[in-house]
Fold this protein.
Amino acid sequence: MKLMRKEGMLGDPGLTCFLTSDVTPVTQAIGVGKCSAHGGPPSLTAFGTFRLHWPEYLMEASLLGAFMASASVFCVLLEYPHSPVRLAIVGPPVRRFLMGISTGLTAIAIIYSPWGRQSGAHINPSVSLAFLRLGKIQLWDAIFYMAAQFAGASCGVLSVIPLVRTELADPAVLYVVTVPGIHGTWVALVAEFVLSFGMMYTVLGLSGHQRLSRYTGVAVGFLLVIFVTFEAPFSGMSINPAITFASAITAHVWTGFWIYVLAPTLGMLAAAEFYLWCKGRLAVKCCKLHHANAKRCVFCGANGGFTS
């Protein structure tokens, strides 16, 4: 096989592509085809994609599992009626703020962790779908990422049940289930759409900025603090179909579940379309939330991402 290194479209020497002039029996076996002319990754079958990128899928599952385990534990501490923390802090706004802090810091830790730097730390099926629409993730990668996210989130909730079974099942906690607030279904739907749009547009704007891209994870964490503190009474603040599914399947509560599938997905896809309209396709960089690191990138090929 003849290999040629090609500089990325945007002049970043780290965004490389390997162009093949022919396909050997070895590459045929794993499903590697010729690379696209615009410098994207080689075309892969489902088996070939999974064989090469399974570490990233496992990382995504583990990261979202850690997120849900953290959310479950902190929700027990802050909302379980007999928790010392809950007894000490009576005001719901203060507890929501503390929950937002824990959620934001957990997200930041995940995004900047070694595994988050390699997988890209989407930890949200709607994020992966938006990047699929933008052409920054291949179809099979997106499918496997979303499957890993749903599985990881569910395992995260299940992992803490042996430790806090009674507390987590209490109606005040109820496996951190997200359901519409007192203002009803349509308010929850609009709120989830707006928050998802804002989150995705922020991610695109910062990750595409040369100097600010490294702060994308910090901005995500900050927004989560704001969202949980002020919006949670309206929709429960999910913006993530996988975490809503994980809580719903464990608690057997599916009230308004369609909202948390539809609104985040439409909100983030709308943000992607709006970003394309405002900035153009060349402004969309790689879909990792933290890219300035030495970890391989299976999306743009940096650090041997197309060959490892």
In short: Confidence is low (pLDDT under 50) at residues 1-39. Residues 238 and 244 are 7 Å apart (CA to CA). The chain has eleven helices and two strands. The first helix runs from residue 25 to 30.
